[in-house]
Structure formats: structure tokens, C-alpha cells
């Protein structure tokens, strides 16, 4: 892999430019966030009909999560300085409810997905001290059910994605003691399939996105002993197709966002050498818009912030030159994770 093939400066400009196009539409919002405040239907190149189910679910929560994708990408490319961070912090805080949970935007309902993104954004900006950690943690803890699973909000939908959100969020806030971790782990383990993968609920089919959530949660809680690493590693490395890209399930097309979900899981279970890393990096680089910046799901498709983030994060996991290292379990820069756990945990060294 050669440095210079990644159009880093163009991707930074793409993320910052989308906001400029939209700046005429809404004058009252902080510059960077204008992109994220538009209704989903107005977002650039979001065609959820065409997308995989898991991705459609991930895209649904575009506003607060969009802040996380955009800002993390800028951080990994050494350009967080291009954003007015105080404005971001005050917008994030305006999305918080009395319950302690965060909404995807001002005036919307809180959800565990937005709550994790809000906490990740504040961690990224090194501003966790603006939070009442107890209050946020109590909101998350109240979403745990008797069987150890987590609901996404007060309406009760259950999914292993929410287990990951809860565990990651509480770990960042140093409040895992507020939930029953053993039950949470047992529930995740109950979603394990005979193929070594994990689904969204017990008995549901294995999917790379859910596998990332389950493996990430098990890694954070020190419970990877429940994973058959060879069996799961085999399923994950079979996701690599001829072009070098990764898909989310058998028979599906490759997609840049799976560079994150599959790759991070393989790194956590120490089986990343089972795929062809150079071919994967080439696939991601082929998905760049080399003229205007941004990364798409597949070569020559339209670019968006979601795939730009997952492409850059994937290249970070592949140790592409010039990109900061990202932690595969917390989905935050390694610098940030070390800062959060300095003095509390052994410094994480996924990169040997
Ligand atoms: Zn995708």
C-alpha cells in the first residue's frame, strides 16, 4: 500500500463541502451540522431501498450518528481543527433529554443509538466532562431487560445492536457496574449460531453487522472466551469476494461499510491475516471519488458521509499510511480510547 493514493484532503473537503452547499438552507445551525439536520430524504445519495437491511437500520439514525461519522473521519485524517468544536458540543447537549438519553436531533425522542453516538462524539472531542455521567448511565441501565437484553428506547424493540450500544457507552463512562454484565453477556451468547456468527435475537441469521456488535460487546466486557474464533473467523473471511471487497452475508454484493464490520471483528478475534488485506485496501481506494472526494459503497456509485467514514476507518484498521489508528471495539481513535482509560485499564494495543 502506498501513501498518496488516498485522496485524504479531498475527502476532508467533501465532508466540509456538503455543509457549505446546505448552509444557505438553514442559517441558524452550526456550519458543520447543517448536513446532519436535514430530513433523511434530503440526504445526499441515501437510497435505502437498494441497501441491505442492516445498513438501512444504521442509516435511519443519520443525524447524531452523522455527526459521529463526519467528525471521526476528520479526526482520523488529522483535520478535526476544521470544525468549531464548541458549537458541536452545545448542539449535542441540546439533544439531551431530562431522562439522560440523547435524541438524534433537537426536539426528537431519545434512543440508545443516539445516546452512544453523543457519548462517542464528546469522547472524540475530549469533552466528556460536560456530561452528568450518572444521569446518562442510569438512562442506559434502565433499558436492560430481565433476560439481560437491551431495548433501544422505552418502546421496547430488542436487538443485539442495543446490547453493544449500552455496553460501549457505559464502558466509556466507567459505569458498567450499573447493569448486570453477566446477564448481558449471556443474552449475547444466546444469539450465537451454529456457523459461529451472531444474529439480532436468538435464532436470527448471522450477519456481519450484528457480529461486530456482539464481538465488540464481548471484547469490551472481557468475554471473548465464549467465541469459537476459528469457526467465526472462517465465516468472516469467506465474506471477501473476488474484487477484494467484503459482503455482509453469503451471496451479497461487496460494500465498503463491511470493511468496518467484518474487519474489526477479525482483528478482535485475531484472524485478520485470513483475508487479503492489500486487495481489500485496493477495493476501498477504488470506491473513492477521486475528483470531488468522498467514498461510495462500490466503485462508481454515489458517495456519502456514511461510506466515507467506513472506508477511512477500514483503511485505518489496515494500517494505511497517514491515517490515525482506530480501536476496533470502541470505534473511536486509539488516542481517544487511551485517554478514556488512562490509569484504569492496560493501554490497548490491537496493533502489534
Ligand atoms: Zn454500505
UniProtKB/TrEMBL annotation:
**Which coenzymes or cofactors are required?**
Zn(2+)
Kindly indicate whether the keyword Transferase belongs to this entry: yes
Q: Report keywords, A-Z.
A: Metal-binding, Prenyltransferase, Repeat, Transferase, Zinc
Which InterPro entries does the protein's record reference? PGGT1B-like (IPR045089), Prenyltrans (IPR001330), Ptb1 (IPR026873), Terpenoid_cyclase/PrenylTrfase (IPR008930)
Enzyme Commission no = 2.5.1.60
Q: How is the cofactor bound?
A: Binds 1 zinc ion per subunit.
Q: Which GO terms describe its cellular component?
A: Rab-protein geranylgeranyltransferase complex
**Cross-referenced Gene3D superfamilies, in alphabetical order?**
1.50.10.20
What GO molecular functions are on record for this protein?
metal ion binding; Rab geranylgeranyltransferase activity
Source taxon at top rank:
Eukaryota
Catalysed reactions, semicolon-separated: geranylgeranyl diphosphate + L-cysteinyl-[protein] = S-geranylgeranyl-L-cysteinyl-[protein] + diphosphate
Q: Choose any GO biological process term that the UniProt entry carries and state it.
A: gametophyte development
Domain Prenyltransferase alpha-alpha toroid span(s) in chain numbering: 55-331
Family, as annotated: Belongs to the protein prenyltransferase subunit beta family.
Q: How does it assemble?
A: Heterotrimer composed of the alpha subunit RGTA, the beta subunit RGTB and REP; within this trimer, RGTA and RGTB form the catalytic component, while REP mediates peptide substrate binding.
Q: What does this protein do?
A: Required for male fertility and root tip growth.
Q: What is this protein called?
A: Geranylgeranyl transferase type-2 subunit beta
Give the organism the record lists.
Colocasia esculenta
Amino acid at each position: 500500500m502506498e501513501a498518496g493514493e488516498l485522496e485524504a484532503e479531498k475527502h476532508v473537503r467533501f465532508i466540509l463541502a456538503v455543509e457549505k452547499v446546505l448552509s444557505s438552507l438553514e442559517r441558524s445551525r452550526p456550519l458543520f451540522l447543517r448536513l446532519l439536520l436535514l430530513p433523511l430524504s434530503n440526504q445526499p445519495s441515501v437510497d435505502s431501498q437498494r441497501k441491505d437491511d442492516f445498513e438501512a437500520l444504521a442509516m435511519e439514525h443519520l443525524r447524531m450518528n452523522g455527526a459521529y461519522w463526519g467528525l471521526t473521519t476528520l479526526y482520523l485524517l488529522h483535520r478535526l481543527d476544521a470544525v468549531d468544536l464548541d458549537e458541536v458540543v452545545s448542539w449535542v447537549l441540546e439533544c439531551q433529554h431530562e431522562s439522560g438519553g440523547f435524541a438524534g436531533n433537537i426536539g426528537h425522542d431519545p434512543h440508545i443509538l443516539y445516546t452512544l453516538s453523543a457519548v462517542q462524539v464528546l469522547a472524540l472531542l475530549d469533552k466528556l466532562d460536560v456530561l452528568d455521567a450518572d444521569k446518562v448511565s442510569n438512562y442506559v441501565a434502565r433499558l436492560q431487560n430481565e433476560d439481560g437484553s437491551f431495548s433501544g428506547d422505552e418502546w421496547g424493540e430488542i436487538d443485539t445492536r442495543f446490547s453493544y450500544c449500552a455496553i460501549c457507552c457505559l464502558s466509556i463512562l466507567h459505569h458498567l457496574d450499573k447493569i448486570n454484565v453477566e446477564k448481558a453477556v449471556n443474552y449475547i451468547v444466546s444469539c450465537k449460531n451454529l456457523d459461529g456468527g451472531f444474529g439480532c435475537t436468538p435464532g436470527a441469521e448471522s450477519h456481519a453487522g450484528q457480529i461486530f456488535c456482539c464481538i465488540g460487546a464481548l471484547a469490551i466486557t472481557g468475554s471473548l472466551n465464549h467465541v469459537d474464533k476459528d469457526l467465526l473467523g472462517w465465516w468472516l473471511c469467506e465474506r471477501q469476494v473476488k474484487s477484494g471487497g467484503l459482503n455482509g452475508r453469503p451471496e451479497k454484493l461487496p460494500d465498503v461499510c463491511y470493511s468496518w464490520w467484518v474487519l474489526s471483528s477479525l482483528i478482535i478475534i485475531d484472524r485478520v491475516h485470513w483475508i487479503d488485506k492489500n486487495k481489500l485496501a485496493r477495493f476501498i481506494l477504488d470506491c473513492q471519488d477521486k475528483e470531488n472526494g468522498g467514498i461510495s459503497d462500490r466503485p462508481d456509485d454515489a458517495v456519502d458521509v456514511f461510506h466515507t467514514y467506513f472506508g477511512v476507518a477500514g483503511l485505518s484498521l489496515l494500517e494505511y499510511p497517514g491515517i490515525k489508528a482506530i480501536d476496533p471495539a470502541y470505534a473511536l481513535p486509539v488516542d481517544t480510547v487511551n485517554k478514556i482509560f488512562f490509569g484504569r485499564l492496560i493501554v490497548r494495543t490491537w496493533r502489534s
